[in-house]
Amino acid sequence: MLTIAICDDNLHFADTMRKRIYDLCVKYVPEKVDCRVLGVFTSGVELKEFMKDTPVSILFLDIDMPGMSGFELAKNICDDHQETIIIFVSSLDDFVYSSLEYSPFRFLRKSRLNEELQDCFIKVIDKCTSDNESAVFNTVKGDQVIRFKDIVFIENDANYYVVHTGDGTLYKCRGSLNDAENLLSNHDFFRIQQSYLVNFEQIKTVDGKDVLTKTGERLAISRRCINDFKTAYLKYSRRRF
After folding, report:
1. Are 174 and 132 within 8 A, CB to CB?
2. Mean pLDDT (whole number) for 116-135
3. Residue 220 or 1, more confident
4. Topology given in CATH for the domain delimited by 2-130
5. Do 37 and 62 form a contact (C-beta atoms < 8 A)?
6. Which of 68, 104, 89, 88 is nearest to 214 (CA)?
7. Where are the domains of the chain?
8. Residue range 58-83: mean pLDDT, rounded
9. Left if phi > 0, otherwise alpha if psi is -120 to 50, otherwise beta: which for 99?
10. CB 55 within 8 A of CB 84
11. Nearest-10 crossing angle of helices 113-130, 11-28
């Protein structure tokens, strides 16, 4: 089931968003997908308490709120509810760069909501329905189905390669890193050097010539790859923002 919530201290705006998102659900969510608009929350504290018992798939989140700000709530979600997709909605465009720290799916401007909401909604639903895409990896313990979104990076290991996943599980697989790269060629992965293949979705920040993953690993980008990596990562980022 897909669940959608709106958190904004402006109740009138939040209720308007709820109605518009409900209409978009009717129009664009595939019939086979069970989708529910949970409602609106006017404070981060209220939503944080609600999410202790109820998972939220997609969250439209205001940033500038009294008490717990949208960024504070986003940090909590990144720590405790990693499956939740955050879409920031703000009237303050200056927040767009600060928001990147929390890896949102999109940043919507309230002043451009009429132009931006529908496209954002279509793409986030497409992401949710494709998040279960996976492949069969030939591990040393037998075939293993691994979702693409769960892979943080893949590491070369002599005549094998090791898949590192977000929950810390490692899968040692038969074959070369070239084999893994070919398997993932139509997805958002990039070979940043001889030894590492990284999932763009799992990158927290790019620090000079290093990639910092959401799970805390720092991986070096080779000098030969740096320009191609920046170009590819920029294209990926533009699809999201």
Report:
1. no
2. 87
3. 220
4. Rossmann fold (3.40.50)
5. no
6. 104
7. 2-130, 134-240
8. 91
9. alpha
10. yes
11. 50
